[in-house]
């Protein structure tokens, strides 16, 4: 639901609730808004796909005789770091929208970077935005943060294992 022009001078695309809806409808961010098990399964498919792709590239470039456990470990590390980057992107996008939803005032641009304005939300709009932020966006951020910590720790452990096995 967009805010009427008389109440809110902010352009439609820059209104926090509309930014939330646009982010939620984009394919990348919509996949993070599903239930936790489905999200983990999707991340697992991405992880497996990148791992297989990296192993195939290594197989083609190195040949069959030079593939080792370290090579597979580095392919797995590449996949973990790719998942880390994906989760960081999701976290930054959702946290930006959350900041805009929780903020009592909104900075917006009317026609370009040179003519920015500041609009203070009405009580009704602020309440609605904060409820959406509290019950829709914050749980997503918490889930993404937990997964980011787990994947980052797995990456660090794998880096340490690969460092000591190649030395």
From TrEMBL:
InterPro entries named in the record: CGLD27-like
Transmembrane segments: 39-60, 72-92, 147-165
GO cellular component, one term: plastid
Keyword tRNA processing found: no
Pfam families: CGLD27-like (PF06799)
Protein name: Uncharacterized protein
Membrane recorded as keyword: yes
UniProt KW keywords: Chloroplast, Membrane, Plastid, Transmembrane, Transmembrane helix
Protein location: Plastid
Coiled-coil spans in chain: none
